[in-house]
Amino acid sequence: MLHRLTLGRIPAKPHTTFHDEDGRLLMEQMVTRQGFEGPYSILYYRTPPTDEFEVSPLKLNGFCPFELVKEQPLHRRHIKTQDLKPAGDYLTGRRTLMANRNLQIGLAKPCEPAGRFFSNGDGDELYFVNEGSGYVESVYGLLPFRRHDYVLIPKSTAYRLHLEGDRGTLLVFEGRPWLGIPGEYRNRWGQITDYAPFSHRDFRVPTELLAFDAARHTAPFELVVKQGDELSIHRYQHFPLDVVGWDGVLYPVAFSIHDYQPKTGLVHLPPTIHTTFAGEGFVVCSFVPRKVDYFERGDSKAIPCPYAHSSVDMDEILYYVEGNFTSRRGISSESISLHPQGVTHGPHPGTYERSVGAERTDELAVMCDTYEPLRLTTTASGVEDKDYHLSWVRHESPGEQAWTSK
Hints:
Blueprint: E1 5-8, E2 27-32, E3 40-45, E4 52-58, E5 77-80, E6 95-99, E7 103-108, E8 117-120, E9 124-131, E10 134-138, E11 141-145, E12 149-153, E13 159-163, E14 169-175, E15 179-180, E16 221-227, E17 230-236, E18 243-248, E19 253-256, E20 275-279, E21 282-287, E22 290-291, E23 296-297, E24 300-301, E25 315-322, E26 335-339, H1 351-354, E27 360-361, E28 364-370, E29 375-376, H2 378-382
Parallel strand pairs: 8-16
Antiparallel strand pairs: 1-18, 2-3, 3-18, 4-17, 5-26, 6-7, 6-29, 7-14, 9-12, 9-14, 10-11, 10-13, 12-19, 15-20, 16-17, 20-21, 21-28, 22-27, 23-24, 25-26, 25-28
């Protein structure tokens, strides 16, 4: 939910007769959240979006269903998603890496053209585009995106994601039941405040309606729906996204991580100061190039590198995009670190001291903090750096026993 938008033609009042150019009565559809108490959009269809003639189950192993690891000993982890091979399209190549009741985190590295449309009935989706550019083709119209954009897609939106050259790297958050702009960034009228780390102007919206194209949209028209962590294919006689207009506050948006306005203090601020999006029991944060802490009084100086931290109520993951992350060694683009609640985490040896006197950081990363512990899937376990926890340990002698998680 951002602000009210209108695209195409709509009648003067909702729930009244409205006809197309040939005089045919259009079908009004209302998309609502929280029953009829929450935000909504109203769309007008040439063909009622209810003419599906067949429904069949679908399994996309690794995405839906996925398998959690049977044992997950408590220690810091490094998931090397850069080792995952490109596969499928934005949907068929999607793989779930971590999950809890409120959040599923996945990755897609498409290498094929987008096939079926998709609608996620389990929650809102937030893509981070690490590599690639393209556009989202949805019932709300066309939304271009580019590298390092976030793309937020409301729950149950029918869409298809196209990448230029059919290649890209996409990190995906599925927030259950919701994921969006944090409430503290809005005033009581719903407007984004002037002290938020972004403004309404930073969000890009659909630019034009989706027009039926017989070359790209071929019958029977198929829509994959996810609900209850199960997939089904819904087949339609007519193109089910043929909308002449809509208005409301539910629609996909794009936001560049480079438009995030970071906050810096005299001394180190906690990472949640970089919160960008939020959901039920979790936040998504953006680390971008910025000035770092600048306290200096006599011989006392700020330490820009994060201090050791026991976050006893939250798991923390970091998805590394590019740049020199101040507190980590052995991490590269597309790495995901998981620092679970119950285990102290902090900078690698040497990085804390070396950060004193630094004026800027060039890091680019996406962070997620969750109250409920995240469980790894077998896909994530298959590309895990099993010795990551050892990277904090200084071995004093060649004969020292290797650390083990069991």
